Amino acid sequence: MKNVSKETFIGLYRDEIDIKNCNRMEVEQAIEKTDLLRRSYTAGIGINVLGRQSGLTEDEIKNISQNADKVISRLERKKKISRKRESIKEEEVYLRLLENKEYVIKRLLDGDERREIVESLGIPHRGNAFLKFTRDMRTQGYLIHDLPKFNKIMIDVDSGKPLSLIVDKYRNFKSEKDVIRFLDIHGVPIETNYIEQSKVCI
User: Fold this and answer.
1) Which residues contact 77 (CB under 8 A, 6 or more apart)?
2) Between residues 58 and 182, which one has the greater pLDDT?
3) CA-to-CA distance for 184 and 188, rounded, in angstroms?
4) Sequential DSSP letters for 86-139
5) Cα–Cα distance measured from residue 197 to residue 202, given in angstroms and rounded to the nearest whole number
6) Residue 102 burial by CB count (10 A; 0-12/13-18/19+): exposed, middle or buried?
7) Which tens digits make up the pLDDT trace of 105-120?
8) pLDDT (tens digit, 9 = 90+) per residue, 52-74?
């Protein structure tokens, strides 16, 4: 699904939100998402799945085939009064990145381009805002600035290397406690043997 936020998409779909408060990218993504929902429903994708992904009600999904053209036409007609990219300030981009922190970090660790990640959120790329975000994430312990090293650490973790060996191998860690914190921060499930090891270091 196109990644305009659920709240914004629902508001645009139902005509319950002032389009002047949305940016053009969000409106375009809402149009694409409406068309995608219609095609997915026609193709037989379950109502529950589509409802969960979009935030629309069961009845709205059931009627998507009849209503999609009207919604798309309305959004296309009003799109010109939405905010242009250049009016979106760096601080707004930064706050949207924070709101979608888990999504952005996952995309970064998957190796996706920054501009592509930001624009998938319905906002334009602002270099300084992204730099501020990544700097803040580093101070919180996310290893998003060195993807090759992150992948090497994950390979060692997946292979069950002892915490002490991981500490010795990577200068990022001063103790076994640092490794456990790193795994927790990045949402990596901690294996039982690591939990046992951590009892002596936390």
Assistant:
1) none
2) 58
3) 6
4) GGS-HHHHHHHHHHTHHHHHHHHHTT--HHHHHHHTTS---HHHHHHHHHHHHH
5) 9
6) exposed
7) 888 877 788 888 887 7
8) 989 999 999 999 999 999 999 99
